[in-house]
C-alpha cells in the first residue's frame, strides 16, 4: 500500500514527523560525524567534508535515490536542486543569529571561497548534461561519473590550499579564525561513536525514505508537480540538519564551520543526481525541465553572491546583515515563487 491511499492529513503528518526526525537525528549525526572526522587522521578539511557533509546529506540522498527508482525523476531532481537553494539561504538565516558583524565578513577564508568555487564547477556539469543529447553507458550518463571524480579532485585541492594557502584574507577586529566545534563526544570510545553513527544514520535514512514516499503521495494528491514538491518541500525538509548545525555553530562563534559545512554540504546535493542516475531509467538529466534549470541557475547565482560578499567583507549592513544575505534570501524567495507558479 502506498501513502497515497491515506487521507491527506495523514500524509502530511508522516512528512512532518519524518522532517522532525531528520532535524533531531541529523544534528546528532553531524556531531558524531565531526568527532569521527577528528579521529581518522585524514585531515580536518577532507575528513570533515566527507563525514559531516555525507552525514547531513544522507536523508536527501535516500529521497532522491528512492524516488528515482520509482520513476519519479522530476521529484528526485527537484529534491537535489531544492536542497541547494535552501541550504544556501540557510547561511543568510544563520547571519541573523550572528550579531557581532556580517557572517560573510567574519567567516571569510580561502577554504570557504574554494568550496564555493568547487560547488559552482560541480553544478555546471548537470546543467550541461541536461542541455545535450542524453547518452548513457550501461544506463549511466557520463556526467554521473564525472561529478564524483571532480569532487574528489576538489577535496584534494582544498586540502592542499588549507595546509599551504598562498594568500590570506585581511584580519580585522571582527575576523574569526577557523574554529572547530567543541568535541561533545570527548571520552567516548571509537566503537561507541561508530554505533551511534550507525544508529543516527539509520534513523535519518528511514526518515529520508519516508520523505520520498510522502512526497510522491503529495504529488499525486495535490497536483503541484514533482519538481515543485521536490524543490520546495522535500528539499527543505532534508536540509534541516544544515540549518540547525549552522545556527548552533554561529552561536558558539564557529563561523567558518557554519559557512563551510553548508557550502561543503551543497556539493553532496549535486552528487545526489549522480546517485539517482544509477537507479533511473535512462538519464536523470533528461528529466530536468526548464523550472529545474532555473532553480540550478539561481543556486549558481546565490553562491556567486555569497562569494562576492566574502570577498567584499562588508562589516555592517541593513537589518544588521550584509547585502549578500539580503540578496540570497530574495533570490530564494524568487526560486520558490517560480517553482510554485
> How many domains is the backbone divided into?
1
The DSSP helix count reads 12
- From N to C, what is the helix and strand string? HHHHHHHHHHHH
Q: Structural class, from helix and strand content?
A: mainly alpha
Structure keywords:
341 residues, transmembrane helix, NCX_ion-bd_dom_sf, calcium, potassium:sodium antiporter activity, 12 helices, A middle domain of Talin 1, transmembrane, mainly alpha
Brief summary of the model shown:
The chain has 341 residues and is an all-alpha fold.
How would you describe this structure to a colleague?
The chain is globular, with a radius of gyration of 19 Å. The chain is an all-alpha fold and 341 residues long. It has one domain: Up-down Bundle (A middle domain of Talin 1), CATH 1.20.1420.30. The protein is built from 12 helices and no strands. The longest helix has 33 residues, at 190-222. The mean pLDDT is 82. The protein starts with 7 loop residues before the first helix and ends with a helix.
List the topology elements:
Blueprint: H1 8-39, H2 44-69, H3 73-96, H4 103-106, H5 110-131, H6 142-163, H7 190-222, H8 226-238, H9 240-251, H10 255-279, H11 290-312, H12 323-340
Helix pairs in contact: 1-2, 1-7, 1-9, 2-3, 2-7, 2-10, 3-8, 3-9, 3-10, 3-11, 3-12, 5-6, 5-10, 5-11, 6-10, 7-8, 9-10, 11-12
Amino acid at each position: 500500500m502506498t501513502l497515497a491511499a491515506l487521507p491527506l492529513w495523514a500524509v502530511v503528518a508522516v512528512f512532518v514527523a519524518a522532517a522532525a526526525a531528520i532535524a533531531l537525528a541529523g544534528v546528532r549525526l553531524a556531531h558524531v560525524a565531526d568527532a569521527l572526522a577528528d579521529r581518522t587522521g585524514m585531515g580536518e578539511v577532507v575528513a570533515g567534508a566527507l563525514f559531516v557533509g555525507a552525514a547531513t546529506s544522507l536523508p536527501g540522498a535516500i529521497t532522491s535515490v528512492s524516488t528515482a527508482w520509482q520513476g519519479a525523476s522530476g521529484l528526485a531532481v527537484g529534491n537535489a536542486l531544492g536542497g541547494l537553494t535552501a541550504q544556501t539561504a540557510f547561511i543568510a538565516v544563520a547571519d541573523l543569529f550572528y550579531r557581532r558583524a556580517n557572517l560573510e565578513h567574519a567567516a571569510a577564508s580561502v577554504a570557504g571561497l574554494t568550496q564555493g568555487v568547487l560547488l559552482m564547477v560541480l553544478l555546471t556539469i548537470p546543467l550541461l548534461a541536461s542541455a545535450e543529447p542524453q547518452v548513457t553507458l550501461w544506463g549511466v550518463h557520463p556526467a554521473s561519473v564525472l561529478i564524483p571524480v571532480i569532487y574528489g579532485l576538489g577535496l584534494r585541492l582544498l586540502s592542499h590550499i588549507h595546509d599551504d594557502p598562498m594568500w590570506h584574507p585581511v584580519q580585522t577586529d571582527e575576523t574569526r579564525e577557523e574554529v572547530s566545534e567543541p568535541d561533545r563526544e570527548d571520552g567516548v570510545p571509537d566503537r561507541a561513536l561508530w554505533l551511534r553513527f550507525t544508529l543516527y544514520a539509520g534513523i535519518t535514512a528511514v526518515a529520508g525514505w519516508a520523505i520520498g514516499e510522502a512526497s510522491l503521495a503529495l504529488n499525486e494528491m495535490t497536483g503541484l508537480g514533482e519538481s515543485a514538491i521536490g524543490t520546495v518541500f522535500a528539499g527543505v525538509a532534508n536540509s534541516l540538519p544544515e540549518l540547525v548545525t549552522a545556527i548552533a555553530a554561529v552561536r558558539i562563534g564557529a563561523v567558518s564551520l557554519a559557512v563551510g559545512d553548508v557550502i561543503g554540504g551543497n556539493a553532496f546535493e549535486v552528487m545526489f543526481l549522480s546517485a539517482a542516475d544509477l537507479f533511473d531509467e535512462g538519464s536523470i538529466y533528461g528529466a530536468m525541465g526548464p523550472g529545474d534549470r532555473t532553480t540550478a541557475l539561481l543556486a549558481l547565482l546565490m553562491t556567486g553572491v555569497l562569494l562576492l560578499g566574502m570577498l567584499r567583507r562588508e562589516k555592517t549592513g541593513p537589518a544588521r546583515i550584509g547585502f549578500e544575505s539580503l540578496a540570497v534570501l530574495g533570490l530564494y524567495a524568487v526560486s520558490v515563487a517560480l517553482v510554485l507558479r
